[in-house]
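User: quick one, fold this
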Amino acid sequence: MKTKLKLKLKMNLKIKLISAIFIAIALSLSVLGVFSYRSTSKSMESSVEENLMNTADGVVSSINQELDSVYRNVEIMSSRQELIDLAKGDISAKEGAFNYLFNIEKDHKDLLLNLLITDVNGNVLVTSEDIQPDMYLGDLEHMKYIIKEGKPAHSDVIIAKADNHQQIISVGYPLVSDGQVVGTMVAALKFENISKHAEKIKIGEKGFAFILDKQGTFIGHPVKEKRSKVKMIDDMGEMDESCKEVVDKMQSGQEGKGYYTYKGMKKFARFIPVDKWILVVEADYDEYMAPAKSIRNDTIFTIIVAIIIATVVAYIFINRNIVNPINQLQKLMNRAGKGDLTVTSNISTKDEIQLLGEDFNNMIEQQSNIVSAIKRNSNELTQTSEELAASIEEMTASNEQVSSNIQDVAGVTISQNDSIVDISEVLVQLSSLIQIAQRRAYMAKDNSKNTIDVASQGRVKLEETVSAIENISNVSSETEGILISLSKISERVSGIIETINNISDQTNLLALNANIEAARAGEHGRGFAVVAEEVRKLSEQTTAESSQISLLVNEMLIDINKAVESMKLSKKAVENGVIVANETDKSFISILEAVEQIGDDIEQIVDITKDEVASSDKIVKLIDTIASTSELITKDSQDIAAVVEEQSAVSQSVASVAEETTAMANELTSLVENFIERGEE
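Assistant:
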């Protein structure tokens, strides 16, 4: 059960270290990946929005220029006198007006579909195609406005059924004579000359531009079939609230931008009013975000690969440099705990674990020396016990003889009462001396207990040493995690520096392209403002990335400080281990001192036996005084005196140390019998 528990603890140590490294790496890379993806996404979105804005502005500018050009041309034509005369009712001017209009249309076939002159009521007097037309335009809103206000205007997009259902707009200008509107000059303009500016726009593969009228109908669209026939709201199908909001904004003539879904595809649109219409430039979200998604996928793949590699490397490193040495040291401690003091640590990791192994060897060597000393003392005590056993046998034999003599003396003890009283007093004194010897024996026994307590204290100190070792291991683990975190942050810094270099290259290339195109375009080089703006954006991105580098460097400094603190803790843990080892050494020295004290007590017991011998001599003298009572008593008394003297000498040796010596010898033997010293294998 203990083996399984230890194995589980070792596995937990390995799993904890690897888990900490895994979490640190995964978190760092995930944060970096998310930041990179979000930064790229925002950059792409900003770039596309800016591009659409610039494109829309360019198209609006082109359409306005086209309309302005038409208005100027119509204005010039309206100043022709024959046209004014015809509008005033001069029929003779009709032929001249017809020829003039015919030639103008002929020269601008690609732009104009027809030219017309009306009177002040809206009746068509002549066209560039018919000198006697039968047409009336007075009911058209823009014609009413021109005649009433005397200002130029144009119609909405109209389908010319007589001209292959072409889209046209009617641009009118007042014919003025003496400050009065006498008629109008009308040009039927092919709308494709205006819508082409939008229809030629291509945003990626799926993005394009189109034009809506105020009713939301497509009047300019890459798909011909939708022009002036399909409303955007009908083409969109079912829409959610956000999509409806964007479409409503478009149709209301507001300028803006927004996202909407068209047939399952997410679109981003930039819309801006142009004259009576709405220009919409849209881009496919998935298409222009493809690079960002590619970066996201590559980042995820890179993170997974990096985590796998880092985990494998960490697993190998931890096994080789931390777990295996600790396992080896644990096995050696287990053997030493079972009494095998021949174990030696051969760890060579060149770090705190190696120092721990060397301290372990020193501790085992000190314990081996202590056990050797205890064994020697145990052998000496054993020999003493054997001598005491022999003395006990002699004492037993003497006691038997005394018992026999006492039976003979019993018959004459009455006459010897006075002498016996004196003998009793002497025996009391001897008893007192024996009691003193007994107390000394108890003192020796107490010292033996102290020896056991000190040995137990040594075991406690050993457990504290193991605890200090665990502290060192934990601190080393924390240091390792911080150092790996520093390594990964360095990789992140390298990645950002590479990004900055790439952005700088793109900036230089865009600047070069802008200069070349501007030189080619001459006055029309304004169209390259997009490139110049892109250069500015890339420069801003470079600045942002540089800031990121600064943040990451700060993170590295913080982690370095953590590493320094962790190393300080490791040093403190090692110092604790050394202190504990020294205390253990002192405990075993106390054991030796206790054993020496036992020897001193035994010497004191020997001194006491000398006094008991003197008392025995006095007993002999008293017995001599009693000898006059009877020869038999004298003879028996002499025998008793000799036996008592012999018994005293033996009992002095036995009573003082016999019990304590035997117990101490057994205790010391049991303590050291499980230890195996070097040279005893």
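User: anything notable?
Assistant: Residues 4-10 have pLDDT under 50 and may be disordered.
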